[in-house]
């Protein structure tokens, strides 16, 4: 494969770069995922709430790629938290994807005020024990939520998928992950393609290497140890975003990008986000 794997805390290998499909309508997702699989992506990141598990599943089936070469992630939506509801929601996701198992199942948001993420995760542990999810984890968990979860359950999450890009570098969360053996997966790794890709320091590094700003940002993630799941529906960008394993940033580049941290979120604060 074009993309090297990282090894999760249960021994399962996950490609360090995958393809995200948030905000891509179902029929378009089928096309985009097909393009990504042709370009060499083997990891796909979807979620029940994205409404494109079916299109994603159709593209996977049509690709003819052996199941064991793929790494499929989906996520449990907020309104389905709780033990029994989680088991039902998981069945529905698998059905839509047309798969017999997923590689990674994530709790999409902690919803701390609802107080259900421990029960939800106990259902995840059952799905893991039954072999229907090869790895289980969470998304948007703050260290305080991870602490509570780890105290009350027995399988340490394999992954925490969080908003992470040069303007929000998440040092404290990454440090906690390292202590616990949790892989850090970056969502909106390109900062949603907004101002970040025009930041002069990033443009200058891109010129220096004969690469694009998006490739420089993705390369920064790879060298920082993050799993990344950039999204695009444009074939040339889908190609460009996976073509980040043929060059390296030097220490000076890394330092310049590390200096861009502003602790600034584009998305909601996990401590208060409670949309069902
Ligand atoms: P992203 O940072 O991947 O940015 C995507 C946008 O950047 C594209 O829509 C496009 O406008 C632009 N772009 C992409 N490639 C480019 C290129 N090569 N050159 C110039 N511009 C380019 O943002 P995202 O979609 O928010 O995040 C990626 C994935 O993370 C999502 O698709 C989803 O799978 C996941 N995600 C998860 C959560 C969560 O709560 N767990 C939240 C948001 C996103």
Structure description:
- The chain is an alpha/beta fold and 276 residues long.
- It has one domain (5-258): NADP-dependent oxidoreductase domain (TIM Barrel, Alpha-Beta Barrel).
- The chain contains ten helices and ten strands.
- The strands form two sheets. The protein has an eight-stranded parallel β-sheet. Strands 1-2 form a two-stranded antiparallel sheet.
- Strand 8 (159-163), helix 6 and strand 9 (183-187) form a beta-alpha-beta unit.
- The model has no long low-confidence stretch (mean pLDDT 98).
- Nicotinamide-adenine-dinucleotide binds next to helix 9.
- This is Oxidoreductase.
Layout of helices and strands:
Elements (H helix, E strand, L loop, with lengths): L4 E3 L5 E3 L3 E2 L5 H14 L3 E3 L7 H11 L7 E6 L6 H15 L6 E4 L9 H13 L6 E4 L3 H10 L6 E5 L7 H10 L2 E5 L12 H10 L3 H12 L2 E2 L6 H8 L8 H8 L18
Parallel strand pairs: 3-4, 4-5, 5-6, 6-7, 7-8, 8-9, 9-10
Antiparallel strand pairs: 1-2
Helix pairs in contact: 1-2, 1-9, 2-3, 3-4, 7-8
Bound molecules: nicotinamide-adenine-dinucleotide.
Nicotinamide-adenine-dinucleotide binds next to helix 9.
């Amino acid at each position: 494969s074009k993309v090297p794997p990282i090894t999760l805390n249960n021994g399962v290998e996950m490609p360090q770069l995958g393809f995200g499909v948030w905000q891509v309508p179902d029929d378009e997702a089928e096309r985009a995922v097909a393009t990504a699989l042709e370009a060499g992506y083997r990891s796909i990141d979807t979620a029940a709430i994205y409404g494109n598990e079916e299109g994603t599943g159709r593209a996977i089936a049509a690709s003819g790629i052996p199941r064991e070469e793929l790494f499929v992630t989906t996520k449990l939506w907020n309104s389905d938290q709780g033990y029994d509801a989680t088991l039902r929601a998981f069945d529905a996701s698998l059905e839509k994807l047309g798969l017999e198992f997923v590689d990674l199942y994530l709790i999409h948001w902690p919803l701390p005020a609802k107080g259900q993420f421990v029960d939800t995760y106990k259902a995840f542990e059952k799905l893991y024990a039954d072999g229907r999810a090869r790895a289980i984890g969470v998304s948007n968990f703050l260290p305080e939520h991870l602490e509570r979860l780890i105290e009350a359950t027995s399988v340490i999450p394999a992954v925490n998928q969080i908003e992470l890009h040069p303007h929000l570098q998440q040092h404290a969360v990454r440090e906690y992950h390292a202590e616990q053996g949790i892989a850090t997966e970056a969502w909106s790794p390109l900062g949603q393609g907004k101002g970040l890709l025009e930041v002069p320091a990033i443009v200058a590094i891109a010129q220096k290497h004969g690469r694009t700003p998006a490739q420089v940002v993705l390369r920064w993630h790879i060298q920082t140890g993050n799993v990344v799941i950039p999204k695009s529906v444009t074939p040339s960008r889908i190609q460009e975003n996976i073509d980040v394993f043929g060059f390296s940033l030097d220490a000076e580049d890394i330092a310049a990008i590390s200096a861009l941290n502003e602790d600034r979120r584009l998305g909601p604060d996990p401590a208060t986000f409670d949309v069902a």
